[in-house]
């Protein structure tokens, strides 16, 4: 069951007009929110990022945070599975084709849910492979825009090479993955690229840095050169649906010893504990004392 413009319906019955600006221009933004044991994870942070994306494209938020929470909870309740991932999508609505914003047009609002499966156990044991590519996206990668063509093409490069992800390099520095954030470990220090307009501020990225701080894991947030990525002891990938995954091969070369490293093991365990707190009804609002 999905939500579309005020109604719940089976996805097969959901239709949007061809003049929707999402379809015509990719003029919209989205969010992906995991729900564990039917509870949205870090909802407050996701809704804050949604507001940032809407501000970035100058589109008014159609709902208050309470209204979003209520709608998302209804979608979760109408779908199977204890763990689900919610996809919500807002476009600038339906109007005669013209690049300029239409006046007085209601946005299109769509929410769907899919089962959330943990990453395959064998990938956590052996690690996954990644390739690198030049980051050729626009310079508002902090906006979670539905116009994802560059990300689609970059991610497909990885699929073509039987790799899990494409790690992006802009002007000689790491930005992120085509659909994930990337961390590097060197000499026991966890390195994270700083948030900027060149990467999506990942919700999982924040969790990992909070866990590192709370558990005295040495970490630095700073620019990471391509050379540092290539000589890393460990590379970690994070996203709401993939959680934390070890990258053990980069452009067909082993990363460090070519197997998941110590910091991956620690952070993965800490992340599972943190999720369990959320499931038991701990804070899911995203405040830092959760
Ligand atoms: N960067 C990009 C480009 C993404 O698409 C995603 C999410 N799919 C992320 C980073 C990770 O963000 P989050 O941890 O909030 O899922």
Question: Ranges with pLDDT <50 over ≥5 residues?
Answer: 284-290
Going by helix content, strand content and strand pairing, the class is alpha+beta
Helix and strand succession? Answer: EEHEEHHEEHEHEEEEHEHEEEH
What radius of gyration results from the CA coordinates? 19 Å
What small ligands are held by the chains? 4'-deoxy-4'-aminopyridoxal-5'-phosphate
Assign the CATH architecture of the largest domain: Alpha-Beta Barrel
Considering the chains and any ligands shown, give keywords for the structure.
290 residues; globular; binds 4'-deoxy-4'-aminopyridoxal-5'-phosphate; six-stranded antiparallel sheet; 8 helices; D-amino Acid Aminotransferase, Chain A, domain 1; alpha+beta; nine-stranded mixed sheet; 2 domains; D-amino Acid Aminotransferase, Chain A, domain 2; disordered C terminus; 15 strands
Would you mind describing this structure in some detail?
The protein has eight helices and 15 strands. The chain is an alpha+beta fold. The chain has two domains: 2-115, Aminotransferase class 4, branched-chain amino acid transferase, N-terminal domain (D-amino Acid Aminotransferase, Chain A, domain 1, 2-Layer Sandwich); 121-279, Alpha-Beta Barrel (D-amino Acid Aminotransferase, Chain A, domain 2), CATH 3.20.10.10. The strands form two sheets. Strands 7, 8, 9, 10, 11, 12, 13, 14 and 15 form a nine-stranded mixed β-sheet that branches. It has a six-stranded antiparallel β-sheet with strand order 2-1-6-5-3-4. β10 and β11 form a beta hairpin. It is globular, with a radius of gyration of 19 Å. The chain starts with a strand and ends in an 11-residue tail after the last helix. Bound molecules: 4'-deoxy-4'-aminopyridoxal-5'-phosphate (PMP). 4'-deoxy-4'-aminopyridoxal-5'-phosphate (PMP) is lined by residues 32, 151, 176, 179-181, 200, 202-205, 238-240.
């Amino acid at each position: 069951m999905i939500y579309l413009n005020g109604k719940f319906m089976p996805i097969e019955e959901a239709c949007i007009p061809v003049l929707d600006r999402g379809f015509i221009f990719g003029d919209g933004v989205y969010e992906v929110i995991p729900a564990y044991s039917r509870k949205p994870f870090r909802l407050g942070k996701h809704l804050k990022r949604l507001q940032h994306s809407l501000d970035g494209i100058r589109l008014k938020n159609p709902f208050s945070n309470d209204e979003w929470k209520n709608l998302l909870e209804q979608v979760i309740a109408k779908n199977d599975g204890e763990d689900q991932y919610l996809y919500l999508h807002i476009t600038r609505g339906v109007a005669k084709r013209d690049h300029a914003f239409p006046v007085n047009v209601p946005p299109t609002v769509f929410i769907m849910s899919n089962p959330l499966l943990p990453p395959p156990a064998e990938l956590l044991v052996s690690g996954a492979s990644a390739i690198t590519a030049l980051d050729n996206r626009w310079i508002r990668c902090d906006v979670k825009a539905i116009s994802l063509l560059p990300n689609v093409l970059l991610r497909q490069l990885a699929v073509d090479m039987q790799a899990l992800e494409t790690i992006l390099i802009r002007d000689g520095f790491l930005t992120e993955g085509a659909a994930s954030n990337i961390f590097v470990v060197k000499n026991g220090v966890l390195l994270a690229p700083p948030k900027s307009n060149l990467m999506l501020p990942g919700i999982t990225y924040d969790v990992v840095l909070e866990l590192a701080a709370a558990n005295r894991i040495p970490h630095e947030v700073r620019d990471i050169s391509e050379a540092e990525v290539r000589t890393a002891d460990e590379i970690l990938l994070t996203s709401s649906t993939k959680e934390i995954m070890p990258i053990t091969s980069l452009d067909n070369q082993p990363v460090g010893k070519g197997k998941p490293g110590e910091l991956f093991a620690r952070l993965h365990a800490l992340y599972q504990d943190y999720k369990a707190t959320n499931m038991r009804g701990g804070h899911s609002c995203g405040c830092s004392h959760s």
